[in-house]
Amino acid sequence: MTAPALREGVSLRPFNTLGLDARARYFAALGQSRELPGLLARADDLGLPALILGGGSNLLFAGDVDALVIHMAIRGRRWEQVEDDTAILALGAGEPWHEAVLYAAGAGYRGIENLALIPGTAGAAPVQNIGAYGVELRDTLVSVSAWDTALGAECHLSAEECRFGYRDSVFKHEPGRYIITGIRLRLSRSRPFSLDYGDLRHCLEQRLGSSDGGGRLTPRAVAETVMAIRRDKLPDPSTLPNAGSFFKNPVVDRAVFEGLKARYPDMPSYDQGEGVKLAAGWLIDQCGWKGHRDARVGVHSRQALVLINHAGGSGADLLDLARRIRASVEERFGVALEMEPGVVGGSEPPTR
Ligand code: EPU
């Protein structure tokens, strides 16, 4: 089996939604999982680490990438174990996530319709346990197929082994160990929809014209409503380069929350059992950053959690803006924000 050809000095600009112009020392596209061991051996021969790149929607290139960058292009959608109500949807890691959502919803299967329009690939979805509108990937994920670089062998991780948390998983805790090649999701034709986040139910009712939708309450209708809400609030990376939420929503101790709530009664919050999750977008907005613009980068005008690369900004420009935002939130609220995208390249140690 011949390994895919390596290209040298490739611009990664088309491969990251922030539109950052970093270069990969070497670059190859991976179309089939059986080509992976050969590519990893090439990286070893070159004395370089391998960096797996999916849709590049949760990455910030701080500079050129001295690695063999492997663009994950393993495609494939397959139904397995189709029963009366449930079925498993197996996706190659390179499948565009949003297309998979529309495919499942169009077939009448429920479970991932709230995750419509999230940019990126199916293989990247477990890394940060993508989530939106009250649903997370872990709610449907059955298993992840991966190459375990520590063992030099293929492996399958159960949902439990993925150790999912809010925007968190084993893949973040052991960066570089697993190269995800596919995922399997358990979907259902009858599971209840999750419509209680924000104004999702209200928007859906407005679109359908009645509360039960008269049978029109389909996974496709929910996906389309989520798409309309996201299009209203979140910028399209193809016109305004961005990486979605730039910070995680911070979870604070109940005592810290009570103190803040007394000072800011309107502050949105979500009970997490042990702690309380705050809305980073609200905290940043309160500090006056929404719509802020530096020379080349800025903060989105309708969602303060999203940083934008307006005009050929660099990773360093974005990191500098992020540092100032964090400092002002910390000063005013005493809450530390954690960045969501992984930082790769330049002198930064890779976080993915
Ligand atoms: N808010 C403001 N100002 C802002 C932004 C938000 O006041 O500029 C307030 C909103 O009014 C609302 C609260 O903050 O009361 C939460 O806002 P929103 O519902 O828009 O959600 P979010 O917490 O800002 C999270 C996810 C998004 C996901 C939405 C919907 C994280 C880091 N972000 O955002 O995920 O789409 O909920 O579920 O958890 C992503 O990860 O890239 C992403 C977009």
Q: Which CATH architecture of the largest domain would you pick?
A: 2-Layer Sandwich
Q: Specify Rg, calculated over alpha carbons.
A: 21 Å
**Structural class, from helix and strand content?**
alpha+beta
Distance between the termini: 28 Å
Bound molecules: uridine-diphosphate-2(N-acetylglucosaminyl) butyric acid
Number of DSSP strands? 19
Oligomer: single chain
**What is the count of helical runs?**
8
Tell me, briefly, the overall form: globular
Order of helices and strands: EEHEEEEEHEEEEHEHHEEHEEHEEHE
Q: Write down the domain tally.
A: 3
- Beta content comes to 25-35%
Q: Report on the biggest sheet.
A: 5 strands, antiparallel
Q: Percentage of helical residues?
A: 10-25%
Looking at the structure, the CATH topology of the largest domain is: Uridine Diphospho-n-acetylenolpyruvylglucosamine Reductase, domain 3
Q: Roughly what is the average pLDDT, rounded to an integer?
A: 95
- Detail the poorly predicted runs: none
> What is the top-level CATH class of the largest domain?
Alpha Beta
Walkthrough of the structure:
With 352 residues, the chain is of the alpha+beta class. The chain has three domains: 66 residues, Uridine Diphospho-n-acetylenolpyruvylglucosamine Reductase, domain 2 (2-Layer Sandwich), CATH 3.30.43; 157 residues, Uridine Diphospho-n-acetylenolpyruvylglucosamine Reductase, domain 3 (2-Layer Sandwich), CATH 3.30.465; 103 residues, UDP-N-acetylenolpyruvoylglucosamine reductase, C-terminal domain (Uridine Diphospho-n-acetylenolpyruvylglucosamine Reductase, domain 1). The chain is built from eight helices and 19 strands. It has a five-stranded antiparallel beta sheet with strand order 6-7-12-10-11, with no helix packed on it. Strand 10 and strand 11 form a beta hairpin. Helix 4 crosses helix 5. The longest helix has 19 residues. The protein is globular, with a radius of gyration of 21 Å. The two termini are 28 Å apart. The mean pLDDT is 95. Uridine-diphosphate-2(N-acetylglucosaminyl) butyric acid binds next to strand 13 and helix 7. Uridine-diphosphate-2(N-acetylglucosaminyl) butyric acid (EPU) binds next to strand 13 and helix 7.
